């Protein structure tokens, strides 16, 4: 594990007294740190053809590819990672205020983080409903359909039933928008395992108070973490989280919290596992899914000079009105924070 200390400038008083994990741990143990916010994207899978499979208009016409893929990515197959358990530990310690996540796999829930503290920006497998009449669809029936690669249909109107994942062309959850102002309460923002390239999620890092320490824990350095109290730690998230818990004196609690996720997890893979055999197994499964999807979609890698088939090009995740709404919310937060309106990049999933 290594970390990159951020150079500081200006006369602003720092809350952190150093650029290492010890300084972060000391701050987290102080009375100044009462409300910790998380931004996480701990998903492991590099999905084949996500633009087509997760496009709502394509799904309406041909739901088979999604349910072919859903069997491989369904949450019951995976166990939370040590980092998921760190989020649960923050809750148990009374520090976690809100966890914003891009993950759709519900592993934060499986790790024990309460639902009311989770904001699933892109939806999740936690709920499902008919895409036409919006009637809820039973969990067990959806699980059975996904296991058996069947197409679940609404018992009320016969429409397609779909997990609550936000598809390309659908609006982000209301809870995401309504939770943005909460970031002004943050004493600490921890950003874990995300590229910070997907908007409007990536814009959340600018919604905390100006003097709020922001910490990036990621395999590589991303985003603009150049404020006096910003810290960047690059490496494997689980290793960095363990090192932080060692500084906090929480390592035993972390291990105990993670051990709880093993109950009933026989045959369940650890999401994000770095074990080579697990990596090869997942890649092999994804390659098979890719082949299956090619057969269903009748697509393959386009040759030079050919057009990409309809349904494979990226579609905006949020409609224009929603982009404007989210931009307005973030700008409102900025106005309150420093009296000046900042521009927010146009958001696409």
Structure characterization notes:
The chain has helices spanning 21-28, 50-53, 56-61, 64-73, 82-92, 107-110, 139-147, 174-179, 237-248, 251-260, 276-297, 320-338; strands at residues 2-4, 36-40, 78-79, 96-101, 118-120, 123-130, 161-165, 188-192, 214-218, 231-234, 269-270. It has 349 residues and is α/β, with parallel strands linked by helices. It has one domain (16-122, 166-301, 311-338): Rossmann fold (3-Layer(aba) Sandwich), CATH 3.40.50.1220. A seven-stranded mixed sheet has the order 1-10-9-8-2-4-5. A two-stranded parallel sheet has the order 3-11. A two-stranded antiparallel ribbon has the order 6-7. Helix 6 (107-110) links the parallel strand 4 and strand 5. Helix 4 (64-73) runs antiparallel to helix 11 (276-297) and helix 5 crosses helix 10 (251-260). The longest helix has 22 residues, at 276-297. The protein is elongated. The two termini are 31 Å apart. The model is unreliable at 5-11, 299-327 and 337-349 (pLDDT under 50). InterPro entries: DHS-like_NAD/FAD-binding_dom, NAD-dep_sirtuin_deacylases, Sirtuin, Sirtuin_cat_small_dom_sf, Ssirtuin_cat_dom.
SSE layout and pairing:
Layout (H helix, E strand, L loop, with lengths): L1 E3 L16 H8 L7 E5 L9 H4 L2 H6 L2 H10 L4 E2 L2 H11 L3 E6 L5 H4 L7 E3 L2 E8 L8 H9 L13 E5 L8 H6 L8 E5 L21 E5 L12 E4 L2 H12 L2 H10 L8 E2 L5 H22 L22 H19 L11
Parallel strand pairs: 2-4, 2-8, 3-11, 4-5, 8-9, 9-10
Antiparallel strand pairs: 1-10, 6-7
Helix pairs in contact: 1-9, 4-11, 5-10
